[in-house]
Amino acid sequence: MTIDTQKDSIDAPKYLSKMPAGRPTKYDPSKNEAVIELMAEGASLIEVAVLLDVRRETVWNWCNENSDQYIPEFSNTIKRGLELSQVWWEKQGRTNIQNKDFSWVGWFMNVKNRFPEDWRDKKEIENKTKIEGGKIQIIAEGEEPETSEGE
User: Fold this and answer.
1) Of 130, 126, 119, which is closest to residue 142 (Cα–Cα)?
2) Cα dist. 60→25, 35, 72 in Å?
3) Which stretches of the chain score pLDDT less than 50?
């Protein structure tokens, strides 16, 4: 039995349909476990792309909810894989704390750039200012500026 996933009457997942250029997707759900295993060893998304024999942009598209190539199952696999990869890298630092030959600078640069949400040097804070009549007013996020008398 042949199913035409291009017809409107069939509710097949988007990733089963042909790509815009007419090629079928290379996504293979049976490789998700291998992705998890690879990332649990600290692998990056480019290593995942090589494992899957696709370009890194394809991996990003499969994870991007706004892409017509979005694959929820794969996106969840990558989210879990990124957590496992971060755990692996953090464990490398923790278990090598007394190793004089361990490259702390290389390790720190790696985790800082791979996992910026948790390892960023500084937090981004948006401040707004209002200058009126020689007075400078700093406005905290979510607050309204004070108004001058007579307004």
Assistant:
1) 126
2) 14, 14, 12
3) 1-10, 12, 18
DSSP-derived letter for residue 142 is T
- In which region does residue 42 sit, left (phi positive, over 0), alpha (psi from -120 to 50) or beta (all else)? left
DSSP three-state, residue 75: helix
Tokens of 4: 């035409």
Torsional class of 25: left (φ above 0), alpha (ψ -120 to 50), beta (otherwise)? beta
- CA–CA separation, 48 and 31 (whole Å): 10
Runs of H (alpha helix) within the chain: 32-39, 45-52, 56-63, 72-95, 104-114, 116-119
- The Cα 124–Cα 69 span in angstroms is 32
For the entire predicted model, the pTM comes to: 0.66
pLDDT of amino acid 136? 72
Dist. CA 102–CA 107, nearest whole Å: 8
